[in-house]
Specification:
With 724 residues, the chain is mainly beta. It folds into 6 domains: 157 residues, Cadherins (Immunoglobulin-like), CATH 2.60.40; 96 residues, Cadherins (Immunoglobulin-like, Sandwich); 109 residues, Cadherins (Immunoglobulin-like), CATH 2.60.40; 74 residues, Cadherins (Immunoglobulin-like); 122 residues, Sandwich (Immunoglobulin-like), CATH 2.60.40; 96 residues, no CATH class. 12% of the residues lie in helices and 35% in strands. The protein has 6 helices and 41 strands. The strands form 11 sheets. Strands 34, 36, 39, 40 and 41 form a 5-stranded mixed β-sheet that branches. A 4-stranded antiparallel β-sheet has the order 1-3-6-5. The radius of gyration is 68 Å and the shape is elongated. The chain starts with a helix and ends in an 8-residue tail after the last helix. 23% of the residues are buried. Bound molecules: 2-acetamido-2-deoxy-beta-D-glucopyranose (3 copies). One 2-acetamido-2-deoxy-beta-D-glucopyranose (NAG) binds next to loops. The site of one 2-acetamido-2-deoxy-beta-D-glucopyranose has 3 residues, from strand 31.
Length: 724
């Protein structure tokens, strides 16, 4: 606090005397700043040391004296006086000395140590450094002791208009649609000025247009470039070079200026219609030009570009038969005339077409400037070309009955040379299509004859190719297909549809259906087949069988009685006559073989074997199953037994003297364990009663067989008349 107070006292005693050496402008600048201070604001550029801000608010008026001003870029013969330091202590005794320190002290600024005058020794540039901070002090010349504490002040470099405006982003490029309205903004430019923007008008810029009128204008303040002329046409001129000037000092005399260029390109709008380069096009097209081939090209030019220049082409007249079409080549924008149908010189020798080109895109803004389309006339001359013969029909369909005689004419084909020369034509059959040489053709008149008899049941279609060749030029050939369909005649008799295997149940009821019989016929009558079945006349009163018509081209064969027996007659042969309804009708005799069989109650055939007839009849099914089950059981026991024996490595040979007949097998016998080999002597089974005189056998297989047979006899005794 005491230090601050002391410094305050220094400032009151050490006066900075401002020397009037500046121009009028620097005076007014100072005046401005003073006015700013009066109004309570802080003058721009005024330095306010932080540590004294508290006191500043009370005595700010005095602070203006800690600044000095010096004009930039000042050059004269002598150093320029910036200002003077003065202290209250300086009362005339020459013992005082002023000392300067800080930025530029001694180099840029020099002080007269006696008078306190400060001079600028160099030219100063505000744009380089706008202010310098320095300290001043008064010292005793003799003792070199400071009489006052040092005090700080600022030398401000005052702006003069020494910098011209600059367009740093230039040169510019901009686009604007052609035909834009006056006032349409195009682009905006910007210039900068390095001079002090807040002091004076050195940096106050005004824009003007130097080149580019009357097409464009610029707003002096915003620098927005605008369209200034109505109806600017890209097709007339596309690019404009506009020169813009920026001038400082608010555009007044004496201001500095800078320029830039703006290249403005007009973009296309669809303001031009397509226009045919000619009003009449003439093409010559050969009559044999293929369909889809190019016959000629037309072009409608459009002064616009890109999408706006695109057109579609159409044939709008002169093509009643719809022979031509016109498409757009997307690359060249040409209209390509193509054939949709073949031309014929002999029929029509010229066409006069109306062709229209229409812009694809349409801008309603220009709807007033007429239709965006154009028409032209296209004359097409058809040119005669040497053409091959032409058949009266592209293909022929012939129907021939299969019984048609050899050498009969079945068809006559004809072809003629369409050219004016009218050559004679010769006819041939392509033998690749008639490998069997079924047909012949007359070379001169095209009559097709039959070379071999036809058979519909072998080949229904004979599709042959006939060629016609001009006599004048053997390379002029054309072909036609002759499809020959062979028509049916009734030349086949019906016959059984299959080889029937027919069975008849012995115990069936009279009238039982034993077979359904149907027939087939290779012929193909128009109204379908109708078969008539009958028994051969000599058997029409057959006592055993009869037939019944099912009304669907099949019959049922029925048994007439129930006394068919295998022993009596095993097979019956039943000849049946099948006839069709053709004219004349064809018929065949087919024999049905009927076999007599034994059936179950349900009528399922069980045995058709005569030998098997002797097998049990009275024996019921249940009994048979029971017998079988017992046999199997016994077999299992025997096999088990034998296996046990084998296990013990006991010989199975049974000695004659050990074959004791009195032995009785008791299944409840208790065995003697593994060691007891005698208890279940198998030999005892071999011949329990010996009635059939079987000899005891040592062979184990024989042994088993005999057991089975005997057991079977035991079980079936009384039921079976056996041949065993
Ligand atoms: C022959 O031509 C006819 C008619 O075009 C066709 O229906 C038939 O299938 C053809 N036959 C053969 C074997 O190509
Ligand atoms: C015969 O016809 C062929 C095929 O059209 C053609 O290339 C050739 O020039 C003709 N020859 C003559 C002698 O006209
Ligand atoms: C009918 O069947 C009996 C035997 O059952 C046989 O003798 C006779 O020849 C058969 N008749 C004919 C026409 O087959």
């Amino acid at each position: 606090k005491p230090q601050r107070l002391r410094r305050w006292r220094v400032w009151t005693s050490l006066l900075l005397v401002w020397i009037t050496c500046a121009t009028h402008t620097s005076m007014s600048a100072l005046a401005n700043q003073l006015r700013g201070l009066d109004q309570g604001g802080t003058a721009p550029g005024m330095r306010q040391p932080g540590e004294v801000r508290g006191t500043l608010t009370r005595a700010k008026r005095g602070w203006v004296w800690n600044q000095m001003f010096v004009l930039e870029e000042f050059s004269g013969p002598d150093p320029i006086l910036v200002g003077r330091l003065h202290t209250d202590l300086d009362v005339g005794n020459k013992n005082l000395k002023y000392v300067l320190a800080g930025e530029g002290a001694g180099t840029i600024f020099a002080i007269n140590e006696r008078t306190g005058d400060i001079h600028a020794m160099k030219r100063l540039d505000r744009e380089e450094k706008a202010e310098y901070t320095l300290t001043a002090q008064v010292i005793n010349r003799d003792t070199n002791e400071p009489l006052e504490p040092p005090s700080e002040f600022i030398i401000k470099v005052q702006d003069i208009n020494d910098n011209a405006p600059e367009f740093t982003n230039g040169p510019y490029h901009a686009t604007v649609p052609e035909m834009s309205q006056v006032g349409t903004p195009v682009t905006k430019v910007t210039a900068t000025d390095a001079d002090d923007p807040v002091y004076g008008n050195s940096a106050k810029l005004v824009y003007s247009i130097l080149e580019g009128q009357p097409y464009f204008s610029i707003d002096p303040n915003t620098a927005v470039i605008k369209i200034a002329l109505q109806g600017m046409d890209r097709e007339m001129r596309e690019e404009y070079l506009v020169v813009i000037q920026a001038k400082d000092m608010g555009g007044h005399m004496g201001g500095l200026s800078g320029t830039t260029t703006v290249t403005i390109t007009l973009t296309d709008v669809n303001d031009n219609p397509p226009k045919f380069s000619k009003s009449l096009y003439e093409f010559t097209i050969p009559e044999d030009l293929g369909i889809g081939q190019v016959g000629g090209k037309v072009k409608a030019n459009d002064r616009d570009m890109g999408e706006n220049a695109k057109s579609t082409y159409n044939v709008i007249g002169g093509d009643d038969k719809d022979v031509f079409e016109i498409t757009t080549d997307s690359q060249t924008q040409e209209g390509i005339l193509r054939l949709k149908k073949p031309l014929d010189f002999e029929n029509k020798k010229s066409y006069t077409l109306r062709v229209e080109a229409t812009n694809v895109n349409f801008d309603p803004q220009f709807s007033g400037s007429g239709p965006f389309k154009d028409t032209a006339t296209v004359k097409v001359a058809v040119e005669d070309s040497d053409e091959p013969p032409v058949f009266t029909q592209p293909s022929y369909l012939v129907e021939v009955h299969e019984n048609t005689g050899v050498n009969a004419v079945i068809e006559q084909v004809a072809a003629h040379d369409p050219d004016i020369t009218g050559s004679l034509v010769r006819y041939f059959i392509d033998r690749h299509t008639d490998l069997e040489r079924q047909f012949n053709i007359n070379v001169d008149d095209g009559k097709i004859t039959l070379a071999k008899p036809l058979d519909r049941e072998m080949d229904m279609w004979h599709n042959i190719t006939v060629t016609a060749m001009e006599v004048r030029n053997h390379s002029q050939i054309s072909r036609a297909i002759v499809a020959i369909k062979v028509l049916d005649i009734n030349d086949n008799a019906p016959e059984f549809a299959m080889e029937y295997e027919t069975f008849l149940c012995e115990n069936g009821k009279p009238g039982q259906v034993i077979q359904t019989v149907s027939a087939v016929d290779k012929d193909d009558p128009k109204n379908g087949h109708f078969f008539i079945y009958s028994l051969v006349p000599e058997m029409s009163n057959n006592p055993n069988f009869t037939i019944k018509d099912n009304k669907d081209n099949s019959i049922n064969v029925l048994a007439k009685h129930d006394t068919f027996r295998r022993q009596k007659q095993e097979m019956y042969y039943l000849p049946i006559v099948v006839s069709d309804n053709g004219s004349p009708p064809m018929s065949s005799t087919n024999t049905l073989t009927i076999r007599v069989c034994g059936c179950s109650k349900e009528g399922i055939v069980q045995s058709c074997n005569v030998e098997a007839y002797v097998l049990p009849i009275g024996l019921s099914m249940g009994a048979l199953i029971a017998i079988l089950a017992c046999i199997i059981l016994l077999l299992v026991i025997v096999v088990l037994f034998v296996t046990l024996r084998r296990h013990k490595n006991e010989p199975l040979i049974i000695k004659d003297d050990e074959d004791v007949r009195e032995n009785i097998i008791r299944y409840d016998d208790e065995g003697g364990g593994e060691e007891d080999t005698e208890a279940f002597d198998i030999a005892t089974l071999q011949n329990p009663d010996g009635i059939n005189g079987f000899l005891p056998r040592k062979d184990i297989n024989e042994l088993q067989n005999s057991i089975v047979l005997r057991l079977f006899l035991l079980f079936s005794k009384g039921h079976v008349v056996s041949s065993l």
